[in-house]
Design a protein that fits this description.
Blueprint lengths: L1 H23 L1 H8 L5 H19 L4 H16 L7 H28 L12 H15 L2 H10 L2 H7 L4 H20 L6 H4 L4 H16 L3 H22 L1
Helix pairs in contact: 1-3, 3-5, 4-8, 5-9, 6-12, 7-9, 11-12
Length: 240
C-alpha cells in the first residue's frame, strides 16, 4: 500500500508541477502549436501522458496488486518465493505506456488540425460533443462489459491466469493492463473535453473509473453514466 501510494503521489505531484508551468507560461504552449513538433516535443508529451496514466490508473489497480502481493507473501513463507510484486506492476504500467504513445499521436494529430487550444482543450463543440457521445456509447458495449468483469474480479483473474517466474508475472501485469485499457481507453478521450492538464477533471475521471471497478453496482452505474455522456454530447452538438 505504501509503495502504491508513493508512486501515485509522485505522479500527481509531477502533474501539479506541469500544470503550474503551463499556467505560468501560456505563451510557450501557444508557440508549440505554431510550429511542427520536434522529436523532443513528442517525448515530452509522451512523458506527460505516461505520468498521467500512472497517477490515474495505479489507484484503480490496487485490489489486483494487493492480492498478488498477498499470494507472493504466502509463497515466500512456504519457501517458494515468487516474482516481486513490482514486476507485476511494471507489466501493468507498460501497457499504459503503450497507450500513452497512442494518446500522444492523437494529440499531435488534433494539434496539427488546429482542433486543440494551447491548454489542450477541444476548440470546437463538434469535437467535444463527439468525444462525449463516443465515450457514452462505448460504456454500453459488450466489449466494455467483458473487460470490466475481469477488472472487478481480481481473485478470479489471479487464479485463472497465474504464470510462474518473472516473465510470467510481467505478462500477468500486461494482461491485466490490457483489460483495464479495454475498460477505459475511450474515457481518456474526455481529457480533451475538460482539459488534458485540468487536475480537477483528471481527478474526476480517475474517481469514476475507480468507483466503476469497486462499487457493488459499479457496472450498472457505468451504463447510467454512459447514457448521461451521450445526452451531454447531444446537448453540446445541439447548442453549436
Amino acid at each position: 500500500m505504501a509503495g502504491l501510494a508513493g508512486v501515485t503521489a509522485l505522479a500527481w505531484a509531477t502533474l501539479l508541477a506541469m500544470a503550474v508551468d503551463m499556467r505560468d507560461m501560456p505563451d510557450a504552449a501557444a508557440m508549440l502549436q505554431m510550429r511542427p513538433w520536434s522529436g523532443l516535443d513528442f517525448l515530452l508529451m509522451f512523458g506527460m501522458w505516461a505520468v498521467m496514466m500512472v497517477g490515474m490508473m495505479v489507484p484503480t489497480a490496487a485490489p489486483m496488486v494487493l492480492i498478488y502481493a498477498a499470494v507472493a507473501r504466502k509463497a515466500a513463507r512456504q519457501g517458494t518465493p515468487l516474482a516481486p510484486t513490482a514486476v507485476f506492476v511494471s507489466g501493468y504500467l507498460a501497457m499504459w505506456c503503450v497507450f500513452s504513445v497512442g494518446a500522444t499521436l492523437a494529440q499531435w494529430a488534433l494539434d496539427r488540425a488546429a482542433l486543440l487550444s494551447p491548454m489542450m482543450v477541444a476548440r470546437t463543440p463538434g469535437l467535444g460533443g463527439g468525444l462525449l457521445i463516443a465515450a457514452g456509447l462505448y460504456q454500453l458495449t459488450p466489449f466494455k462489459d467483458a473487460c470490466l468483469r475481469h477488472c472487478r474480479a481480481p481473485v478470479s483473474f489471479i487464479s485463472e491466469r497465474w504464470r510462474p517466474g518473472i516473465g510470467g508475472a510481467f505478462r500477468m501485469g500486461l494482461e491485466h493492463g490490457a483489460y483495464c485499457l479495454g475498460c477505459c481507453w475511450v474515457l481518456m478521450g474526455l481529457l480533451f473535453v475538460g482539459g488534458v492538464m485540468n487536475l480537477l477533471w483528471i481527478a474526476a475521471i480517475t474517481g469514476f473509473v475507480l468507483l466503476e471497478k469497486l462499487l457493488p453496482r459499479g457496472a450498472g452505474g457505468g451504463r447510467v453514466a454512459g447514457a448521461a455522456m451521450i445526452a451531454a454530447g447531444v446537448a453540446v452538438l445541439a447548442i453549436c
